[in-house]
Please model this.
Amino acid sequence: MTDPTLRTMGQQLGRRSWAEPWKIKMVEPIYMIGRGERAQALEKAGYNTFLLRSEDVYIDLLTDSGTSAMSDRQWAGIMMGDEAYAGSRNFYNLEDAVQTFCGYRYVVPTHQGRAAEQLVSQTVIKPGQYVPSNMYFTTTRLHQELAGGIFVDVIIDEAHDTLNLHPFKGDVDLDKVRELVKQVGPENIAYVSLAGTVNMAGGQPVSMANVRALREVCDSYDIRIYLDATRMVENAFFIQDRESGWADKSIAAILKEFCSYTDGAWMSAKKDSMVNIGGWLAVNDYDLFDALRNKVVIYEGLHTYGGMAGRDMEALAIGIAESVQYDHIYSRVSQVHYLGDLLLNWGIPIVQPVGGHAVFVDAKRFYPHIPQDQFPAQTLAAQLYLDSGIRGMERGIVSAGRDPNTGDHRYPALELTRLAVPRRVYTQAHMDVASEAVKAAYDSREQTRGLRMVYEPKQLRFFQARFEPIGIHS
Ligand SMILES: Cc1ncc(COP(=O)(O)O)c(C=O)c1O
Model:
């Protein structure tokens, strides 16, 4: 039992407490609807948390994408929008921020990450070429496949084991890269697609040593590396915290050095940069930039706004600078770890080490009686909502989709329910409530049955698929 004299959260966890480096200026009320209404809402949503109405959700841990709270400075930036069709002042501020903090030469704005993924994939990949990557991300792999690329997972094996405590489970296995090059030839590799941190592995980082070594390997074959920089600031924090030799370097310096080992990047700015909408891609090669800048006009808009309003580019430029501030990133990652520690203390199976943006519950170990093709992670997301109004999302067999060649489900080793924490939005009390919701679902796990998919969209099925509880109509 907890010692009743341990009053603060810090004392309970055996450390001095820390606090968020902000105070609240405006609040948005949230409400919990009753259990009967939640049951109805869930049925109406086909047991898919993406199809719930946000007003029916109490604490929304669906995603950290576009859901963060902007600072007063970012809101002030919104008022400074220069909405000129061409050459907006805000574009130049954004370009400058990307160049300053990531070091790439040429910048193209896009309305969000997947637009940048589409442009890079369509421009760089020749049909039939291979795209090795440190695990897949749903939209990234889809765009690579739509461009004719063949995805190959080259992440280290430790990433597929939810209990392995490797500090950099996002690392690339260099032998897997060498083996692929040996098999198919370097000319048949479009580029290495490197993500820092790896969302689908549980928000796991890539070490500086690994990206340096990857650069050497790729240089020896003349292969380029493009970085998914969506959560690269969180990755930089883990390097500072865990990798020897980096403790005294600033987050900004670590970020810039990491990017320097890559040839370009794309970013969903809706995550680390704390804007509600936005993205960019950036490269060092002028010819490639020219091709991308030309293509962005077809899909997104002129190359000085790329689908974003001027005001959104301004908020993004400010958000990039705020994201590398130590106090911010420390409290952001610590809040996620606080939630993870609560669950671990109750013996609830989660991906360890806890990652940067979310706690991932291991649904295979949570519901060992539910086979993977009855969607244990989807079941847990539905159960959490039903029980407590908390919204998480599936990151398992539904997200993995079907193999384009065989048409069968892909059966990923990781079957996870993600509780993603928006930045600067919730307090530790919300984390306490969320953890108790998971505990309640865990306590009743043996009575929980799996789901059957009754509607399956062709692409990115996790967004719109519908399910029914097994036992109903059967
Ligand atoms: C790692 C990663 N890459 C790319 C994307 C796609 O970005 P967006 O949602 O802005 O299109 C996401 C979004 O969830 C992501 O997590």
